[in-house]
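re the bet — no i am not wrong, look at it urself. input seq straight from the record:
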Amino acid sequence: MAVHVPLTIEAQMESRALMMSTNNILSPASGEPIIVPSQDVVLGLYYMTRQKLNAKGEGMVFADHKEASRAYHSGIVDLQAIVKVRIVHEALNDIENQSMKVNLKYMKQP
């Protein structure tokens, strides 16, 4: 059996680009997907992050992730509803040993 080893930098870059998993999702012969989510965790993450249009609670704005979690557990918001949640990141300053809160802004439009 022959083994092909890309020796030059250009050949190595080309082989990496061609062998990446993002380029090998569909079968070249039939166009059907080769890779499908099959593990429990992958399926759960896919289900949780899939957007459902006109879901209960869509468009609501929450002050933090705890409020969003309470709304979900009380049945006000569906799991797949598109909502906005304010996220505050607390960073520790190593030099002065004090924590500071930084507001993170992330907006993803559907």
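see?? Residues 9-104 form one domain. told u. also The radius of gyration is 22 Å. so pay up
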